[in-house]
Amino acid sequence: MTKALSIRNLRKVYGQDIVALKGIDLDVDEGDFFALLGPNGAGKSTTIGIISSLVNKTSGEVSIFGCDLDTQKSEAKTHIGLVPQEFNFNQFEPVEEVLINQAGYYGIDRRNARTRAERYLKQLGLWEKRRQMARSLSGGQKRRLMIARALVHEPRLLILDEPTAGVDIEIRRSMWSFLREINAQGTTIILTTHYLEEAENLCRNIAIIDHGEIVENTSMKRLLAKMVHETVILDVA
Ligand code: ATP
To answer: What sequence ranges are listed for the domain ABC transporter (predicted)?
Structure first.
């Protein structure tokens, strides 16, 4: 099976001695819906930053759909759509322009970009807002705009860093159903989250990271079965 992501012995040291990743290995198959779960400071954002070429690794190997980040970085980047935690689009542009300009970075012409923007804005419930300034959107709407923007060049791998943090439950559910739909259409998805409920609802496979190490890497089903088993043992004890 094609690997969407393959990571070997990945290390990251910030400054002299902040060891954020201690040599992790991780594989994600094409088509998977994969969760990276872990407490604050575990190394999730660092991992995602390295995969997306925003953070330099200290050592190790990363490849995206077979493209090595050291030797085929620009091709690897075309395969990735990133939804970071913070809103980093131009707040003073109309919503639709945010998407059209993003498409422009990938060499997509305006007409084509407009068609794609329409599709994603409609799917994410933002079509009525297309002429409004991005800054006038609510927090949940901004998050959905970030997802649309990450998809506009039609990447094979969508990476979301805590996409539903601070989003109310109704919007969160509608984002979940949208993500399920695009995953069913073939986009591989990796998300980081603090919510086990979110991972349980969406993901087939999961890795748990803690203090820069992968402490669990299994299917969601096996993890839940193990948790139930451990709870039973604890109850008996
Ligand atoms: P959160 O859930 O809070 O976002 P996280 O799992 O994403 O946490 P990271 O942000 O990857 O964790 O941080 C991993 C470790 O690296 C932490 O100890 C953090 O303090 C440290 N760290 C992250 N970014 C930097 C930086 N730019 N400079 C120095 N240390 C950093």
So the answer is: 5-236
The count of other CB atoms within 10 Å of the CB of residue 181 is 11
pLDDT tens string, the chain, 237 residues long: the values are 789 999 999 999 999 899 999 999 999 999 999 999 998 899 999 999 999 999 999 999 999 999 999 999 999 999 999 999 888 888 899 999 999 999 999 999 999 999 999 999 999 999 999 999 999 998 889 999 999 999 999 999 999 998 887 788 888 888 899 999 999 999 999 999 888 888 999 999 999 999 999 999 999 999 988 877 676 554 544
Among 40, 83, 208, residue to substitute to test ligand 1 (most atoms within 8 Å of Cβ): 40
The pTM (predicted TM-score) of the whole model is 0.92
Q: Hey, how many other C-beta atoms are within 10 angstroms of the C-beta on 99?
A: 27
What sign has the CA pseudo-torsion 211, 14, 29, 87? positive
d(CA 57, ligand 1 centre) in Å: 13
The set of residues, in sequence order, having a beta carbon less than 8 Å from that of 214 and lying 6+ positions away, is 24, 25, 26, 207, 208
ipTM of the prediction greater than 0.90, yes or no = yes
Ligand 1 shell residues, CB under 6 Å = 14-15, 18, 20, 38, 40-46
Ligand 1: residue of 37, 44, 58, 193 to mutate (most ligand atoms within 8 A of CB) is 44
Q: Residue 28 corresponds to which tokens in the numbers above? A: 């994600």
